[in-house]
Structures are given as structure tokens and as C-alpha cells.
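Example (one chain per record):
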Amino acid sequence: MAKSGSETPLMQQHSAIKQRYPDAILLFRVGDFYETFGEDAIIAAKVLGITLTKRNNGSASASELAGFPHHSLDTYLHKLVKAGYRVAVCDQLEDPKQAKGIVKRGVTELVTPGVATNDKLLEHNSNNFLAGIHIGEKQYGIAFLDISTGEFMLAEGQQEYIDRLLQTLKPAEVIFQRSFQKQFKDQYANTFYTYTLDQWIFDEAYATESILKHFQTHSLKGFGIENMPEATIAAGAVLHYLKDTEHPNLQHITQIQRIDQFEHLWMDRFTIRNLELISQDPNAWHLLRVIDQTITPMGARMLKRWVLMPLCKKEAIEERLHLVQFFHQQQELREKLSPLMKQCGDIERLVSKIPPKKINPREVLQIAKGLKEIQQIKELVSGHEEPYLQKLAVQLNALKEVATKIEDTVMENPPAVAAKGGFIRNGIHVELDKLRGIATNGKEYLATMQQKEADTTGISSLKIGFNNVFGYYLEVTNSQKSKVPSGWIRKQTLANAERYITPELKEYEEQITGAEDKIQAIELELYDQLVQSLMEFIQPMQTNAYVIGVLDCLTNFAGIAQQYNYVAPELHEGRKLSVKDARHPVIERNLPVGESYIANDILLDPDAQQIIILTGPNMSGKSAILRQTALITIMAHMGSFVPASAAQVPVTDKIFTRVGASDNLSGGESTFMVEMNETASIINNLSSNSLILLDEIGRGTSTYDGISIAWSIVEYLHNSNHQPKTLFATHYHELNELENKLSRVKNFHVTNKEVGNKIIFLRKLAPGGSTHSFGIHVAKMAGMPPSLINRANEILEQLEAKHVDGETAIDVKNIGKTEKLQLSIFDAHSETFESIRKTLNDIDINRLTPVEALLKLQEIKEKVK
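Predicted structure:
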């Protein structure tokens, strides 16, 4: 861009504002358009698909230009933000008609992914969190704020805990001190949209002052965060960032809550992923999808958080469970509540629009309608003996005066934009009513005036007209001009008539020509007063939103329990997990029509049956049994009924899973390395109240390495002082030997039956280990050629014979103590067989496709010809 000396005043103004926001795209309001210049224009044109032009702005060089009409801001703004750009909206701060010289302009809002309030940038069923992180000397602090709902939470802990919160709440944007940039990038790559701030912002005194000033309190004790310095600093950085991004009106952030890690069931990110609790894929089946029949946005957001952060305090869980039980029995009450809750609208997000005055007349009217629904909900839920329902009912506040004031002020079916006017009711402002009368009844008024003047003067041919030169006039023909009163002022002489004006006509003209502008000004003033009056009721309205969210979630649980035959779990402080006829809630709902889920009993008892080793092939249902055990535990801790006929669930503090081979090859880690990292995380964090699910541990390495590792993990868990409840699914049948060696290890397998040459997996759990992997049968079911299947059976017979009779049989008694075992199937002195052995050793069976298997078999066949 050219130097300021050769720029027009407009471009000088643009350059000065752009310098303050160098890392944002500047939308610069010029008349009825938002314009972008230079690099901003190139980006905007590409992202928005608008025309990029060049024009000479009074400078020696031309500048790129791209713009769109100001009324299309909502359409284009969210596209830029979703594309990952920060956007500074620069508006005209004065009326161009009254401006002397260039119009004053300034940035009214800086929109980033984490501070979005535009409806098009938000998902109704998900929070849009901005996260601030501070790294202290001993631990981390983190704060989460959703500016669109006013929720503000903070936590403190070790890196692993902070990582878990980040992965759970998935903020839209993360801010941290600049010196932490490399560390964060190494840890999370491009998982999160980030922005870095100067080091001085992360100061405890500054942060404390920011928080106290915002909440207008003298101490942090009321929030229970006075001994959380790192979290306080993170929260202070978040408030600083909001100020930095031109968000000064934050009165809807009325409280700050601490997230206590000991109040929630611990699940690391591997567990959340492995159990498929949620998914970004709209077509994927996951737990949230099958248990979410919520009908309010508050309920949908709350349920998602409950799924990811179940409770682990017995009293709090039972409070929910008892109310679900109550609603389960009160179907009629649920049916009355549902339509009322649905009509409330998104109370949280409507309320958050009040402080910045971004709420439109239609939304204000929705608040009034919602409050009337709240009144009916309060009447419905009051008077019942259920304690938690009583507690919730008391918190509801219908704010009758507020609802009445809104309905008395705003017309039915108001416009979505206040500037359009025509939405303030008649009868509340005398001047407004008068101006409306003038604007709408102009012709009648003029006709009345004409008749009155004609009657008074006796001029029967009197007419009232209008022209652009001197406005309204009275026209009198020459034959009757002698009757014109002396007070009339002559303005124009025509061939056959003369035109006059009167003080009354002039006064009316001034009224009618300024009426529209005055009407709009009065309406906007009255609306501004109305919105301002709502400010003091923000907190009770937010409490209403919270209560409706809870009622929505718990009535949802009751409805699903009834619909899908779930049962109330019995929570206890012991350690035994016993579930009768357990079912997988997701698979069950995804079965073909007419097919029922095969239920299984699960018993894990640290005193007798601490570890179940579940053997059997893939496709037999091992993983489903593992997952359903965890999902039932999680659902119980959320306060939900569970898919079973009976369930005794111990209060669990942590659930760990290691399911399947999930590569992180893009991160440079092998299947086995990922597997070992995840397993190490389990071993290092378990407790006596933990539930551990391990599926196919060790399959990422060679067979005997895998068996050794799996064996030692079972031994470790069995001999650990914590004795955690463990389900261990494996295809290593050698592990069945552990039942004879470790007292609390029990073998189970998934039953099957052979029909002719086929294997049918019955998906029913039975005591005892499985001796077959049925891998060849699975290959046959997958459509492998008969010749390949036959050859595989021949090789299997040789292997089994060697395994039982040969020198290389596995010594399970001394596993882990023997030297590395080597499978000697072929004559070691034969070069041909050595070559074949090398080929086989190089094959990763887990990754082999049927076609590749055929080609390898052909290659081996050629060698032995």
C-alpha cells in the first residue's frame, strides 16, 4: 500500500485502524458497504467468493478491493471466522449527514472462533468455549468461557488433567502465553485454533483485579477459587482477551465455577474415543446420539457435558436417579412438561445478547413467551414430594412483571431487525402515537383541514396541494381570491389561481416530513430502555435456563428408559460390579429390524473375580461386551437408567480403555507404540475404584512379544494393591493358563456352534477359555478362495503339532523368564525355507488384505516348485 502522504483521508483512516489490528481481516464500513483492502481483500475474495477489483485510492499505486453490502454481514462474517480468520468489524461511529469532514470510524467488535456470538457461528447443541491456559511452576491452570451462554469455569491440575479437559470440552479457541507456543504445538499439533498473548497478562495480581472488577466483589472466596492461583491467572487472561477483542458488555457472565476433578468420573481422551461417547461425524452412531432426545438447546448442551463428565459422588448421582425414577412413573407429567419446555427457546443465548444489545425485538418477545412457559412449568413441578424436584421448582422464577412489560411494549410478530421499526405498541408514548397518526392519516388530516378552511372562508373551490419547491399549499381560483384571509401568505401566482401557505399548514408539513425519522428514533429509544431494563434480571433468567436444562435431561432419561426398557442402576460404595442381561446401548439401536440384542451377565468382583480374560475371535462380540460394561457404568454415573434387567454399579472414579489398534502414524508413532503409551497411562493412574478394559493388548508386535506383555500386564493388575476391576479381551489363548495361577483371574469365552463347515458366533458369554481363534473360518466367511483356506488349514495343523509336540512349545510356567522364542517350522539349513521364513516374518497379518494374501501365497508357492 502507498505511503500515508499520498493516500486519501479515507485510506489514511483505514491504515491507522488496520495497524491496531494487524492480524485480523478488517471489514471497513463505507456507506452501505463493508470494504476490504489489500491482503484482506485477496483473502476475503477467495473465502467469500466475492469479486476482487483494483482501484486507485488517490495514491501512486492501486489497491486491491473487495466488498459486500452491510446488510449481508451475518452471511459473510461467519464464513471468514469458520475459515479460521480473526475479523475486525469497523463501523461508522456518527451519522455521515452530520459529519464534518471524514466520518469517524472504529472497530466495534473483533470476532474470533472463541468469542463468536453470531447464531450462524454457533451450534445449538454445543458450547462454544474460549479456553485460557496458564503454566505454573507446579501445575497448570485453565479457564473455559462460553460468551454465548455466560458459562465461566476454571480448573487446576497436572498436565494430564488439563489435557483431558481440553479434549473433553473441545474449545473453539485456546489462548496462552507466547513462550508456551512451541510446547503447545508439539503436544497438540493443529488440534485447536490458538492465539498467543504477552507474558505480562499472565500475572496473578492483574488477573485477580480483573476478576474482582468484573464481578464487583472484594474477594475470590465466594467463588471457592481463592487457593487456585494458576486457574485464576487463566481466567484473568480470558477476561483480558475479551476486553482486547472489543467485548466490554459482559454482564451476563454472572458467576465463575470451579471444576473439581474429584467430582467427575475420570476418562482420558483414549477412553472417550474408544468408547465412542460422542462424534463429530453426523452419520456416526455413538452414545450421545442414542440417548439424546432432549427438546431444548440448554438440555442438549448439558447432556453432552454429562456424557463427557459423569459424576462420581454417590449423593449427587442418586439425586438425579431418584428424579428420573419419579419421571419414569409420571408419564403424564412428562407429556405436559415437554411442549412447555420446548416453547421456552434458547434462554441462555437469548439472555447473553442483552448486555451488548444485540438482541432483536423478535428475540425479546421470545423471552416474554419463555417466561410465561416457565410459570406453567413451575406450577406443574411444584407441590411434589420428590426432594430434587422441589429444589429445582423453587429456583424457577417466572418474572411476571418482566414478561408483562415486554408484551405491553412489543407488538406481536415484530421484525427481526429493530431498525426497521413498527414494533412498539400504541398507547405507551403520546408523541409516538401522534406522529404515527400524522404519518398514517395524512390524507385524512389534509382533507379535514381543507374542508375546515373552505367552511371558514367560504372558498368552495379551495384545494390543498404539494410541490417540492415550497411543500404544502392552499390553491384558490382567481374568482374567489377576494375571500382569502389576511393571515394567509401568498407563495405563487398562476394564470387562473394563486397559492398560499398558512402557519398551521407549515406546522403540519414540518410534522409529516420529519415523522418517519422521529418515529424511528422514538421506537429505538423505547426499545433501548426496554433492553436496558432486562439487565437486572439476567441472573434469574440464567437460573431458569439451568433448571430447564436439568429437567430436560432427566425427563429425557426417563423417556428413553421407558422406550428401550432400561432399568434403574443400584449405586453402592462397595467394589462389586454386577449387571444382569447387559446390552450395548448403541449397537442395540442399530440392529436390523426384528433382530434383538443378545444380552450377557457381567460380574467383576475384586475379591473373587477381579479380572475376566475373555478369549475368542474377532467378530464374536468380545469388544461389544467390553464396551457395554463401560457404557453402563458411565450411564449410571450420569444419573441415567441402563440397558439391563438389573445392575449393581459401584461408585467408580476412573474408567480406562485400550481398545483396538489405533495408529498415530501421522504423529510418527507405530501401532505398538501408541498401544504401549495408552497402556502405560492406565498402569500409572489406576486406583482401587477403577474399571479397566483392555482389548487385544500386544497385537501390534510379534506373537510372543505380545503374549509376554499381555501376560505381565494381567499379573501386574492382579498383584497390584489396588486390585482394579478388569476385562481383558484377547485372541492369545495361552493367557487362559493364568486362571490356574492367579486366584482372582477367571476365563470366559463367547460361545459358538458349528453348522456343517460354518461357525456361528452366538455372542453369549460362558465360563472357560476358547481354544480356537476361528481365524480361518472368518477368512472363509470373508470370501477367501478355497485353495487358500485349505492351505491355511494344512499350515495350522503343522503349527499346532509343533506347538504341542515340538521343541518350541510355549512354556507358560516360565513365560517372561525364557529367552526369546523362535518358531522353527522349516529346515534352517535350507536356503529356500529360510527365504520363505523371512517372507512370512515380514508379513504384518493384521494389515494384510485378501488380495495381498493371495499374492504372497503365490510367491511362496513359486519358491517351493
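Caption: Residues 662-668, 804-810, 812-830 have pLDDT under 50 and may be disordered.
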